[in-house]
Amino acid sequence: MTPEREARMRSVIENRQTNLTVIMENVHDPHNIAACLRSCDSVGISEVFILNSEERVRKKTLQSGGKFGAKSSASASKWLDIHYFEDTQRCFEVVRSRYEQIFSTHLSAEASPLHNMDFAQSCAVLFGNEKDGVTDEALALSDGNFIIPQFGMIRSLNISVACAVTLYEALRQKMDAGHFPSARTAAEKAATLEDWARR
Questions:
Q1: Per-residue model confidence (pLDDT) at position 72
Q2: Does residue 55 have a pLDDT over 90?
Q3: In Å, what is the CA distance from 50 to each residue of 53, 126, 188?
Q4: Are 87 and 141 in contact (CB under 8 A)?
Q5: Nearest CA to 160 among 123, 129, 120?
Q6: Which pLDDT band holds residue 155 (cuts at 50, 70, 90)?
Q7: What b/e readout covers 100-113, taking b as 16+ CB neighbours within 10 angstroms?
Q8: 0.85 exceeded by the pTM?
Q9: Could you state, in order of their start, the residue ranges of all structural domains in the chain?
Q10: Are 84 and 91 in contact (CB under 8 A)?
């Protein structure tokens, strides 16, 4: 590894966050998954959770030769820890053991506008699939939901766009709260550097 490459890695690791993550639930399109992963990497997220609880999504996973979306997201996934789940309850248990709140993107009377959410705290953001959104089971397990304000005739965004918009609002809030550089210990950063060098 060249000194320049190592310096780049160290610079990125300095800002890797441990209090923000994304859950993608039954997202069908591998290109959407890849775009979301790139946004996650861009704002300093360390790990992502991909939940395939529907049989039709799992079939596509098998047809694609393994973990759905893994090939198309190779560049971003190299720098992210990606966890795959097929059971919703188990996925939420693991996420809750690491993050304090889970917020879903869901249109309802109780939904809060994106900019009213507190993303400075430790939280996971849940995005549902392209057609049906977040499942009722996942919604029931969430701590709250939000919508992205829109004023056009078409009141929906592609999931990868919605993910990017949300994560950059979270980034803004976390920067204002002084979360950059990361609060991780020197030992944790060194372990990440060693892991990335192996990758």
A1: 44
A2: no
A3: 10, 10, 24
A4: no
A5: 129
A6: confident
A7: ebbbbbbeeeebee
A8: yes
A9: 18-193
A10: no
CA 173/CA 158 separation, integer angstroms = 23
Whole-Å CA distances, 39 to 36, 164, 166, 199: 5, 6, 10, 20
Q: What is the SS3 string spanning the chain?
A: CCHHHHHHHHHHHCCCECCEEEEEECCCCHHHHHHHHHHHHHCCECEEEEECCCHHHHHHHHHCCCCCCCCCCHHHHCCCEEEEECCHHHHHHHHHCCCCEEEEECCCCCCEEHHHCCCCCCEEEEECECCCECCHHHHHHCCEEEECCCCCCCCCCCHHHHHHHHHHHHHHHHHHCCCCCCCCCHHHHHHHHHHHHHC
Neighbouring CB atoms inside 10 A of 32's CB total 22
For the domain made up of 18-193, the CATH class stated in words is alpha beta
